Amino acid sequence: MNKKRRGNSVSNPSTLTQSNLQASSGYNVNIAVIGDSHVGYLNSQSIFNNFLPRVLSTGNKRYVIFGGDNAHALGAFTTAEARSYYQQFKNIVDHNLGPKNIYYRTSIGNWEDTSRNDSRSLFLQYFNPLTGRVSIPRTQGLVHHVWLDNGTGTFSQDSIDLLNNLDNNHYYIIDTHWPLYVPGIYNTVSSDHVVSRQETDRFFNAIPANVRNRILGIFTHHAHVFYSKLTNIHSNFPNTPFFVTGCSGDYKCSSFESGYYDVDVTIQNNQAFLQARKVIL
Length: 281
Description:
Structural class: alpha/beta
Mean pLDDT: 92
Oligomer: single chain
Order of helices and strands: EHEHEHEEHEHEEEEE
Number of helices: 5
Distance between the termini: 16 Å
Strand order of the largest sheet: 4-5-6-7-9-8
Number of strands: 11
Radius of gyration: 17 Å
Strand content: 15-25%
C-alpha cells in the first residue's frame, strides 16, 4: 500500500548531553539515523527510493546510520530472492550516497539476523561486520559510531566485548536494532519489541565507568515508532539520551512514524555534543 508522505518535520526537545552548552562557536557535523526500510516487502523499495533523497536534501549529511531490517530477508521464499532484496537496498543507497561521498554503516535487524535464506551471510556480503566502530567523518576522529548485534533480541558476545573495550579518548554514538528497556518505554513501545531488563543491564554494565559520560546518544529501531528519553535512562547514565527511530518502508509503517532522526554533532574545544531532531516524511 502506497502511503501519503508528509514533508513537515517535528522537533524533539533538545538532546544536548550537557545542558549548559553554548553552541555559538565550534562546528557541526550533520548525520542521519534511519531504520526499518524492509526493502522487498510490497511497496517498500519504491518508498525507500523516494525517502532517502529527501533525507539528503536537507542539511549537509556527512554520514548515515541505518538501524537494520534494511532488507525483508526473512520474508523471502529463497536465498536468491533474499539476495535481490539486499541488492535493491544497496543499489538505492549507493546511488544516493555514493556521488556525495557520504559514508554509512548499518546494524543488523531481526529480519536479517537469521539463518533462513542465508541472510546473515548476505548481510556480511552486502554491508559490514555484525559489530564494529568507525570514526564519523569530519569529527577529526573524536566521535565514533558503534554498531551492535542484538537482532535476535539478545546481545552477541562480540557486542559486549566491543563495549568492554571502549576507551575514554573518544565520544560514541551507539546504534543497535532492538530498543533497550528504559524507564517509561512501555508507554510508547510494545513490550514484545524491547529487550529484557537482563539484556539491558548487560549492555549498560559492559560500558566502562570512565566512558559513561562519553556516550553522546543511543539509537535503536525495530518498533516502527518514534520514542525518546533524554535523561535518566539508567542509574549510571543520567545525561545520555536514548532514541527509538521510526520506519522508512511499507512494512507496518504508518505515515505518522515514517521518518528519521536528523542529528548534529557539535565539536567545541575538543568536546562533542549531540542534538537530534525527529523528522517525519
